[in-house]
Amino acid sequence: MSANLYELLAKSFRDHPGTVAMQSPERGNWTYAELEQQTARFADCLIDFGVKPGDRVAVQAEKSPEVVFLYLASLKTGAIFLPLNTAYPPAELEFFLADAEPRILVCDPNKRSMLEPLCTGIGISLFTLGADGSGDLNGILPPSGGLPVIPREGNDLAAILYTSGTTGRSKGAMITHDNLSTNAQTLHRQWGFVPGDVLLHSLPIYHVHGLFVALHCALLNASKMIWIQKFDSKLVNRKLQEATVFMGVPTHYTRLLTEDSFGTANCAHMRLFISGSAPLLSETFEQFRQRSGHTILERYGMTEAGMITSNPYSGDRLAGSVGFPLDGVSARVCDEEGRELEDGKIGTLEIKGPNVFKGYWKLPEKTLEEFREDGFFITGDLACRDLQGYLSIVGRGKDLIISGGLNVYPKEVEDRLNHLDGVQESAVFGLPHPDFGEAVTAIIVSNQKTFSESEILDQLRPLMAAFKLPKRILPISELPRNSMGKVQKNLLRKQHSALYDNQ
Ligand code: MLC
Ligand code: AMP
Is 74 helix (H, G, I), strand (E, B) or coil? Predict the structure, then answer.
């Protein structure tokens, strides 16, 4: 049998044709039969466009049911789906498109004029799809579709997701059909999905969390998804009353806690709250338990490996811990040479399993560097295992900031800053922030007499996605350095640790 993930998912569509698959407060309902028919139209359309198995289908469009149909269609036709954060400006997109060489790019209608020159230059066909279902793609779709699923091997690519790196250069993580199928089935089982579960889906769908973890669990279960276009704490708080499962990043949980009416009544039908993508503070975990009566299940994952560990569904869910390796996943805490450390010691987390990606797109040497000879992938996260086997992520070996569940690599921001008028050099790091968890912060040495934070931000804005922009830029006469000449970011971090306390 083909290992195409679409076959696995489509089985549940066919078994539950009349069940509502997606319910959008603005746009109404789609049943599983309709989801399958729409996917078939999109799939036939991709084939009409000349998309062949292994071709990349890039999408930078606002969250909508149609993006899900397009994703499923891409799987069905054996193409490789390439989702792109809607916040990337053309200056950033250019790199992804040149590197991945997709056959087509689907973007929001209001971005067409901005992206047309770029796509024409690289030879990519451009189509549009709006969050309300508008866009030229809709006009081109055939009235129905019926071409068969293209068979795939388990090791064939289903998706490429770009992840930034410590060097500032983004890398495309190559994710296979088997990576996605095994992870989805494990999560579905270990998180105890049952018939009738309703998933409140308010995550973006250009990352692992919203696109794979949340969506695949719901589709495998033939669950109804309450389809929220963009996280909004008031709407989510209201819609919780109709749901049984919610998945979010810690910022979603802290924002829910700011809603006065959030509490046990709204959560009466809830079975499970899951958090991940960034560390959940113990105080959020506790406050949430007190207000809702629910114990958040924290799990840990990454683009390169989907979900890796999870607190138990049945059993103690510990604050500050990410639980145990998922079934089939091996995890070890190691020193820099890859030697396993004893429990209680802090080291780098290394992992192996069917969820671990195939490598970085067009970067075989980088791929080799990140794997041990025995096949373990070096995550770059610092972890510690307690005597009961619970793992905690206690820091990051990689220089990474996670802001509201989105990754920002300081080197990338520093590179951009250092090229701007008025900036001699810069140091970028994360500081604790009550809403985003961490806030991107820049300290710069200016080579101009007057320093203007807003002028620097104005120059930076067209060059990078808004979530990467420093929340504050502060001047300094000289960056503190150690005897090796390395900037002492720890000192700067300590000095400014309370910068966002009153936000
Ligand atoms: C938006 N802004 C952010 C931001 N999101 N700033 C810092 N960090 C973020 N994450 C900025 C915008 O640029 C804008 O700035 C202002 O905030 C308002 O924009 P918005 O779009 O209205 O923001 P908001 O709706 O409040 O979004 C915040 C958020 C969202 C936390 C709800 O970012 C979100 O849903 N994050 C989830 C990300 C996610 O799914 N991560 C999973 C990755 S997968 P200005 O200046 O223009 O006003 C992964 C693997 C795993 O990590 O383990 O899951
Ligand atoms: P990404 O590359 O965007 O997939 O982000 C993956 C990174 O998010 C991981 O390498 C971790 O650093 C971080 N992460 C994900 N889940 C958790 C968690 N529960 N606790 C702490 N860090 C997490």
Answer: helix
